């Protein structure tokens, strides 16, 4: 366990620039998503606001939490799994960046839209988006960083590397497995906890 922590710390110190780049990409996605929501024409805001109201009515009436959990887990695992897969290829770099940016965009758009169209929007964001995002966004950032680092490692070649391909893959899959687990926990929060918070405190 201690050895694993040391290896992870060494990885972070060696590749801190990747983590910084990932944070910048996700933050840019969030910012542009927020701007995009505010740039929507009134008629589209009206349509989306009606759909959101319908969704909140369903939350009030009662949800199939198991189905919601299945959808949330599938969504999160698909995103994390796709990034991990792209990290194993030498052509995955631009797609990894695009996927991270898109996830940030969705989060920024959703949060901005809720705060723009509802008086209680800030509370809805805090209760429905923040709990799962506190887990999923770091998991997304870690996955993106290790995927970028591994993909670049493959591109540059491994002749001068002090670590074998097998050991590198083992570390990659271990960290990837941990982020997949975090993604599942975030999805469970999304499915079971956030709707309850909304029913208790907002709706």
UniProtKB/TrEMBL annotation:
The keyword Membrane applies. The chain crosses the membrane at residues 12-35, 80-102, 122-155, 167-189. Keywords: Membrane, Transmembrane, Transmembrane helix. InterPro entries: SpoIIM, SpoIIM-like. Signal peptide: none annotated. This is Stage II sporulation protein M.
């Amino acid at each position: 366990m201690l050895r694993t922590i040391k290896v992870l710390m060494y990885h972070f110190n060696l590749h801190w620039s990747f983590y910084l780049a990932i944070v910048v990409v996700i933050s840019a996605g969030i910012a542009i998503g927020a701007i995009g929501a505010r740039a929507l024409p009134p008629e589209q805001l009206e349509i989306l606001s009606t759909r959101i109201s319908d969704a909140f009515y369903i939350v009030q009436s009662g949800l199939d939490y198991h189905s919601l959990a299945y959808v949330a887990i599938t969504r999160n695992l698909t995103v994390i799994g796709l990034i991990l897969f792209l990290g194993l290829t030498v052509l995955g770099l631009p797609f990894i960046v695009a996927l991270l940016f898109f996830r940030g965009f969705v989060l920024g758009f959703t949060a901005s839209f809720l705060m723009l169209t509802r008086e209680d929007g800030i509370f809805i964001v805090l209760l429905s988006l923040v709990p799962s995002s506190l887990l999923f966004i770091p998991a997304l950032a870690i996955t993106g960083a290790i995927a970028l680092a591994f993909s670049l490692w493959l591109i540059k070649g491994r002749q001068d590397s002090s670590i074998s391909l097998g050991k590198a893959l083992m570390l990659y899959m271990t960290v990837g497995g941990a982020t997949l687990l975090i993604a599942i926990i975030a999805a469970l929060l999304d499915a079971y906890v956030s709707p309850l918070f909304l029913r208790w405190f907002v709706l």
